[in-house]
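LOG
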Amino acid sequence: MKIYLLGILTSVFPSLIQASEQPNIILLLADDLGWADLGYQGSEDIRSPHIDKLANNGIRFTDGHVSASVCSPSRAGLITGRYQQRFGHEANSPPPTDGMDLKQVTMADRLQKLGYRTGLIGKWHLGNQDEFYPTRRGFDYFYGLRSGSRSYFYHPKKDDKAGNAKAIEENGKQVKFDGYLTDVFGQKAINFINAKDDKPFFLFHSFTAPHGPMHATEEDKVLFASIKDTKRRSYAAMIWAMDRAIGKLVDSLKASGKFENTLIWFLSDNGGATGNASINLPLAGHKGIKFEGGTRVPFFAHWPKQFKEPKEFESMMISLDIMATSLAAAGAKDKDLKGLDGVNLLPFIQGEKATPPHQNLYWHKLWFSALRDGPWKLIYVQDYGYALYNLEEDLSESKNLIQSEKKRSDRMITQLNDWKAELEKPRWDEAQVWFRTHSKNHIRIIEGE
């Protein structure tokens, strides 16, 4: 009788049955976080106990990348599961009148159709105009800022002046806030996951930390008094506050019984920046350039119900995979994942597939490009040329093999250019100062200066 009744319920109310099994999904995105700047990544001066605990009990992606080394295009790739250059979102920071292509379907759009309640807390940075607003891109709820960065404290005469894209808003209405912004975002995230609703939820918790300005509370900075560099002391305190917010979110999940069936992703939108005292070592480079320090980021997934044993996942993967993997976890069919550049990682994580999820990964922004072919990494700098590295033997990208591996480099150059030929023309540009700055940084590393 019970089996017969279950069959009737499944056929008549399939969404009810599926909803009870679908995982909640949380995407935790740090901003400009350095490769070496978490406890589980080996830092000796940064403390991040709650993040470390999640990482050490989850799947740690040791060769995990983002699709751009700067904020806005990285987020466009992340939220669509596609290389953002395919729809012209190549340069950073859309101009005031532009934003992410309205034809693109977001992760939030797709999860809504699968029965999810969707929310975004924090930084958007995919268009300031109302037509690009998060609640028009698949999110039921938004609390945060339209633009890229702002003060961590309420500033009525500047960032929080009426009409400023940096101002904090709640579903289209500018709002005041008290206290330190990272803590405020943390509480709003808890409020969202605890809202009374039978649906599973998708929360995109997009921190501004530890992106500049280097604002931290005095109470948090005192905890890192042993760090002599005052900028890095503030940076450490900003990560501590982010870690605290994540810890409270996890506690809330556990208290509500939702923790076991919540898929949590954590990563940074790009590598550590030159201006926030971050450390990317032993990786070469930083935010804005195509060396590993710009695109390889701290990256893990945690899902107790499915990921029973913690492990390191050493195969190359990319932030574009988050969408395909999350949709598959939520019950999407294989045909629903077509058209994505990301792949469903679940069969690879669970050992059902032994091959790497990607043989190749690509990066390109205006004047600089890169291609990974397994352990081989090709970098292109406009008006300079190419460099080639074997990351398996030279993770720090210190030995340029472009001359000694000419046959391989020629093949990879052709492959990179063929991929670039498929892309849409960039919808906006960047100031030439960025070409000069990042060109010098690329060449300095290539030439070992």
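LOG (cont.) second protein
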Amino acid sequence: MLDTSPLTRAVDHFADRLRAAPQSRLQRGAAAEALGLARELARRAQLLESPGEEPRVMPDVGMFAGADQVTVAAHDLALVLRSEGELASVLALVAEAQQRAGV
């Protein structure tokens, strides 16, 4: 079984930083970055779980929900990752999103 604990730690850290960020930072793009990451993580999970089916798009439920959306999507994806390469790719996505979010 693949050890996805590095992903869990990275996402939990990003989510904690988002929750602690001031509203002004969320409005300047951190919330949009979180939503974009959550949508990509959810898309990847759906493609692995149901190849051939069109992935559903995670809805935008507001700037204060981004941390939770990222966390849920990442934990769902962690359950279906199959290789170290997939894990490394997702870890890179999380790191890049956190850097762009500025949190």
